[in-house]
Amino acid sequence: MPAQGAARARRSQLSALRDPEWLYNAGTDIITPLYEDSWYKNLSDSRARPYWQLAADILQQGYGHYIAFEDKGERNGFATDPHFFAMLCNNLGIALGKLEREGEAWPIHERGFHSSPFIENALSAANGAIRSGDAQAAQRCAAQLQTFVEKHFGKDDIEYGCRAQSCVLAAAGLSESPDEWLPKREAFQQKWSDNRKHARLCNSDEHHFPEDWRVLFTNNVGALNDQWEAMKRMFERHPNDARLVHLMLRNRRDHGGRSARESGLALADKARQLLEPQRHTDEGAARWFETRYSLAYLRYRSWFYDADLVGQDWLPQARKEFAECLADRASDKVQGVDAMLDYGMLLVREDIDSNEGIRWLGEVIQSLEPQPRAPANENAWRPDTAPDPALALAYVYRAHALCMQDKNDNAIPDLDAAAALNPWFPAVWYWRATIASEAGDADAAIRWATRFVEFDGINPPDDEGRATMLSALVQLLHAAGQPGQARERFNELEQLDASHDDLPELRELFNPAGKKGKSLWSRVKAWFG
Asked: 421: Cβ–Cβ under 8 A, 6 or more apart, which residues?
């Protein structure tokens, strides 16, 4: 059957369905794996789209039944539970959003919220209205969200209080001038971001912190998205406001995602045009410094992550821009430390100049020490009293550089310092396992590697990192005369990543007639860098 005929047949079949509970459950059963099942989550947008489309078609049918009942008094066999309808609206809105039909999605979320208020519809309605650029609708939905949150969670709730106030701020920005909006944005930042510490977490590649801090970080990303939408439209009305361009670049740097990198670097020429002439004043010099830092950071991350978009010449450009930032870093002590940290990590991670990287990471350590050490109980670790996460990162990356220079003995004190600052930092265990293995201390290497692969706390290693260390652990256990435990770890690796490159060689370890597997530890050592 031709594709168009199949689509018509499917719509005809759906229109014959009259059981709204079945429609809701069927649509939800399609959506849930797209969020929770690893195979579906890894589908490309084009391959996932038919699933989202089918879910939207099914849920739209159930939505239509309820609307007919509500607006026309036609029952159509639809259950009349308003919360049931609100949940259907939430799932339908999600599916429409995935199909890039956000203009249809957010009003459905809002209607579901009015039917039976719950937080997911309130948040999605506010976010969607903000992205639509409709100031009146955005302010209405943000006010609804804030009222609901204050009633059910409290205005200072670390999760929803933050997002609600962010939405109110962003909605106001759709119609206010920079003079009106920027002071409100600064007040929001001071309240929720914990300034230096939280901003550093946004700028780093490592996020290891307790649950409340994780919530604060996650909501900060949401707040960054909210504020970006407001600033984009404000910029259309005020294209020559240097303060606004400076904050837009900072927003993109703090976000760090691919779309943020693209939209941030698109502002480069405008930023230089507006901000460089102001560099001779104290306030202008601080903005100009941070602007160059933001551009250098975005360029570096684009070179590192977006190989399909940029050329190799971006790396020397990023390095040059970082160097220019550092030349006058005194103009901004806080962001100056961020720039030194990011530049040091760049030099070490890309194996550009480990000695220069060690120098700048040492500057970070000297600038931030002394710091309080982390409490023994991770639940007692709070954002306002915790050690600055930049310091643990600086110690770990300096240890990384020293290990790559075969100076393992010099790296151990740095790893100990990082562990004292953040006892839940898997990168520390990774390098301790590496050092112990290279020193021939199999027991210690197995102990550290086991701790790495078994960690399931605040922020465990990702699947790639865990698989790489499992591969090494199989070899370590087998060489230590523990074939049973080696086999168990091999099975874990096979279950985690059935296509892992090391599996064929590792399998030979358990084949008596086969060759002895060669060492794969050098591959493990390359993972963190």
From this structure: 371, 373, 374, 387, 391, 392, 395
